[in-house]
From TrEMBL:
Domain ATP phosphoribosyltransferase catalytic: residue ranges: 50-200
Upper taxonomic lineage: Bacteria, Pseudomonadati, Pseudomonadota, Gammaproteobacteria, Lysobacterales
Location relative to the cell: Cytoplasm
Entry superkingdom: Bacteria
Gene: hisG
Protein name according to UniProt: ATP phosphoribosyltransferase
Organism encoding this protein: Marinicella sediminis
Sequence intervals crossing the membrane: none
EC class (word): transferase
């Protein structure tokens, strides 16, 4: 039995490769190889454009895949979302030339350039526009004002939009990377067991990325103050040091808390403080 996995080719591939590597699945191959080898023989990998993956997973050409929620919605792909990953967050936005009036466009027929034909049509209908859609094939932002009155495109920072003297007038959709599966694959007990194991490890890695392990020593008179400071997942681990009245304290804490927490721990009497990475939290 093979689990067929579709991975988006391009910048998102780097994040997916790193995630898979952290759970123990190593992708091996050259940049031009669209069918790379996999360290786990249960998986068969293919690299595809992210736009193509939702429909192919729905059809059963692949069992699992990764792509933006925008492309799942745009294609109306009937897939099972297993885990929102949060990579590459973007907004699908409606943009017009920066010195144009947005409401005035509702008074006449307009041309709208977009890669998102279905999401755009729904947005335009819901907002009272009389519009002719034309499909763009990249570089959507260059269409106005000569070739389109509006563009509906994705953006993460808005920099390209501003550089082309456009302004954002409305948000059409919000998207980030999803891990999803073919519904028939999930109905297969053998495939579902592998996918469930994969999800368990993905959750473990993503939880671990938000935390670090703090280890420290302290004298017995300071132990209560130090434990009270630690925002541990449950309770900190406390152990008495061999042949001593001192203690060792260990806690997994949110990574962002360390900047403020470590000085407070030091002031409370903690010594030999170590901050260590965590690979998985299961």
């Amino acid at each position: 039995m093979k689990i067929k996995m579709a991975i988006p080719k391009g910048k998102l591939q780097i994040e997916i490769d790193r995630l898979l590597s952290d759970i123990g699945i190593k992708i091996m191959g050259s940049e031009r190889n669209y069918r790379p080898n996999c360290s786990d023989e249960r998986f068969e990998i293919k690299l595809l454009k992210g736009q193509n993956i939702p429909s192919l997973v729905e059809l059963g050409q692949h069992d699992i895949g990764f792509a933006g929620l925008d492309w799942i919605a745009e294609q109306g792909a009937d897939v099972e979302i297993i885990k929102p990953l949060g990579y590459n967050p973007v907004q699908i936005v409606a943009c017009i030339p920066e010195d144009w009036d947005y409401e005035a466009l509702k008074q006449r027929k307009i041309i709208v350039a977009t890669e998102y034909m279905n999401l755009a049509q729904k947005f335009l209908d819901d907002n009272g526009f009389d519009a002719q859609l034309i499909r763009s094939y990249g570089a959507t932002e260059v269409f106005p004002p000569e070739d389109a009155d509006m563009v509906i495109d994705n953006t993460s920072t808005g920099t390209t939009i501003k550089a082309n003297r456009l302004k954002i007038c409305d948000v059409v959709y919000e998207s980030a990377t999803q891990f999803f599966a073919n519904k028939a694959a999930l109905a297969d007990p053998a495939k579902k067991a592998v996918i469930d194991d994969m999800l368990l490890l993905i959750n473990g890695v993503m939880n671990a990325r938000q935390r670090v392990l703090l280890e420290m020593n302290c004298q017995s008179e300071n132990i209560e103050k130090i434990v009270a400071l630690l925002p541990a997942m449950r309770s900190p681990t406390v152990a008495q040091l061999f042949n001593s009245q001192a203690y060792s304290v260990r806690a997994a804490i949110p990574k962002m808390a360390t900047k403020d927490l470590i000085p407070k721990l030091k002031q409370a009497g903690a010594t030999d403080i170590l901050e260590l990475p965590i690979r998985k939290v299961v």
